[in-house]
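Folds abound. Consider this:
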Amino acid sequence: MGKQRVGVGARGSGAGRVRFKVGLMAAAFLLAGVALLGGSLGYRWHVSAEADRLQSDGVPTTATISDRSGGGGRGSGIDRIEINYLFDGAQYEKWIPCAGLTGCHSTPGPQVTIRVDPADPELFVAENGHTNGSLSFLMSWTLIPIGAVLTIIGAGLLFVVVKDKDSWA
């Protein structure tokens, strides 16, 4: 009975492995949270700055609304419209959100005014304030609280792992 265990089955080695795994999990949560939170906020800032720039520097162009999708009820996706426009002899086509957070209460008229970047005609801002990048998954409002929660969980776990390193033995 009195034989002491050494090596892989030694008393502290299992706890050290658990601490390492919890530390890795904490780092993964922290990294994912910071990426979602920072990516979403950064992309929102970029799209807003681009919209402001195009409101003043963009060339006014008339776009035709060719289709509408989503918004038919809960879970039907983002209420969006497809617009087509001609600029410098080239045809462009893009989906943008129909309206704000509440979606469209009715399909907008057959045409909408957009302001196009003359240097890069695929970039535009519509009169409803949405740009060609407004449908990116990074524009989802749910990413901000999810990123914040993952960051808090990751930071909390990492704090526990680093602070209580002696109690894991």
Q: What stands out?
A: The two ends are 23 Å apart (CA to CA). The chain has two helices and five strands. The CA atoms of residues 115 and 139 lie 21 Å apart. The first helix runs from residue 11 to 57.
